[in-house]
Amino acid sequence: MNGKLLVIGFGPGHFDHMSGRARQAIGESDVIVGYNTYVDLIRGLLTDQEIVRTGMTEEVSRAQEAVRLAEEGKKVAVISSGDAGVYGMAGLVYEVLIEKGWHPDTGVEVEVIPGISAIQSCASLLGSPVMHDACTISLSDHLTPWETIARRIEAAAVADFVIALYNPKSGRRTRQIVETQRILLEHRAADTPVGLIKSAYREREHVVLTTLERMLEHDIGMLTTVIIGNSSTFVHHGLMITPRGYQRKYTLDSTIQDLKPHQRLKPEAEPWALEGSLSGKNGQDPTGSISAAKVEVEKPNLPALAMEALSILEAKGKVQTTALADASSETASVVSIFEVAVSSGLAEKKWTPAQMKLLAELAGEKGEIEYTPHHQILLRVPTDSPQEIIDCLTGEGLLLNPVGDTVQIKACDFCHGDKGESIPFAEELNRRIGGLTVPKELKIGFNGCAMACYGAVTEEIGIVFRRGSFDLFLGGKNIGRNAHAAQRVAEGLTPEALVEAVEQVVREYAEKGNPNERFNKYFKRVGVVAGFRHADAPKPTIPELACGE
Question: In what side-by-side order are the strands of the sheet with 239-241?
Fold first, then answer.
């Protein structure tokens, strides 16, 4: 029996601004799935629900786990602050479902419950900055290339939109807000009003009213929403106000509307309308490229109209933009970024010049090549034809692995092949479980002799070949102040038993581990994996020195 997915936007965070349906949906759910901070914000509404919580950037894992639980028959609430359909979880949930062949009539039921988005809650604290055409732009390039974001910022700036910036800055991502300011200052006055709102309607709410030129002098972080006014936005007694144009529509101190319906949006009555703004002083278009008939076509080519409008404004000296040049050489389609981990082989650590040359050619000027400490190179290539990239790499004898929360076999070089007796078993493991999706990336260390100089015993799963048999180690932790070696759970395993045991361990972890849960934590939590029992690592004792110091 299928369960139900309730994708809930709970607004800014205060209970007063949460819809009645959102409260009801949280109360009727069996499981709550959400980012740590969001779970804490709604804790007062929770009773006995199962909680699945993850850290930032783990949105895909949350969506996958929510779908899995719903398919088990549970009623699952996937929570987002603001509105779940605005940079929230709604889209990801649908993407995961569609990947699994979901159909609304036969699959898991989905209900998306709206909430107050940040542009609305933050605007209410500033006054009325979003009273005319506005747009939202996320500065996070986690899922969207920065070049695409930058083009959108410039387009919004040229079109004089009020702009709300989401995810403006984080600890690691600092340049985007600086670049955004630079782009905006090319098209807007330095004294354009800007509102900075942190944690709207939450305990640590903080509101700053500043200008475009001075906005970077203030603290901006992931909890900040930045609202940038348009050319008509002004400040009055600490309030940020964008006119709606009502003085052109009716007189504020009169109960009579001077303009009749048939007079609306005519350049002689409202010169700010589209037709008037693109006309000469006598109502004639100086370029002759836009006419009323063209605007009123049944299916307008909006990108083409936008480019025509930009060309007119540029011809009149109103704007300067690179958008026209870019449009002539680029299409509007979104190009995917193909990312793959590349190595010269499981045991082979030497790269040929031809292989290195191929990587450089495939990356080109727009791709990226990143070295990792795991004998792999990450290749990121903008392409809509990933199979062509795969064929080129494998044709050159390179080994490919997916990137992300997957299994990677990290083998030593087997003393440059001199101790290669166990290589076939490392390759068999890689064939069976290499690239398998798991709750958190999992490195399996494989040493080809008892010297274990490659450090396999410090990995979360370690394998050491010794005189024709294998020792198996589980639960290591090689990073952090509490790093420790793995626990030896078996000695003298035959090659066949070793391969079967490791595969069973990994598949149990893949099936039963919580999202974002590392294997060492999973092993400790469940106590027994594939028949191997966990034991806490002994705590080191430091003897007292004779000198007493």
Answer: 127-128, 239-241, 234-236
Round to whole Å and give the CA distance between 156 and 447. 56
List, in order, residues 6 or more apart from 305 with CB less than 8 Å away: 290, 294, 295
Q: Are 54 and 516 spatial neighbours (Cβ–Cβ below 8 Å)?
A: yes
Cβ neighbors of 331 (< 8 A, separation 6 or more) are none
Nearest-Å Rg of the Cα atoms of the chain is 30
What separation, in Å, do the N-terminal and C-terminal C-alpha atoms of the chain show? 67
**pLDDT, tens digit, 9 for 90 and up, residues 304-340:** 566 666 666 666 565 565 555 554 444 334 457 888 9
Q: Mind listing the pLDDT tens digit for each residue in 493-529?
A: 999 999 999 999 999 999 999 888 999 999 999 999 9
Q: How many CB atoms within 10 Å of residue 484?
A: 17
Secondary structure (H, E, C), 457-502: HHCCEEEEEECCEEEEEECCECCCCCCECCEEEEEEECHHHHHHHH
| Angle (CA) 499 407 436, round 5° | 85
**pTM of model > 0.70:** no
Q: Which residue has the tokens 């929360």?
A: 405
- How many other β-carbons are positioned within 10 Å of the β-carbon of residue 85? 18
Pairing of strands 461-466, 469-474: antiparallel
DSSP state, 514?
P
> Residues, the chain, total?
549
Q: Which residues of the chain have pLDDT under 50?
A: 246-266, 268-299, 327-334, 549
DSSP tag of 422: T
What is the pLDDT at residue 282?
37
| CB-side neighbour CA atoms (13 Å) of 19 | 17
- Antiparallel, parallel or unpaired: β 407-411 and 162-166: unpaired
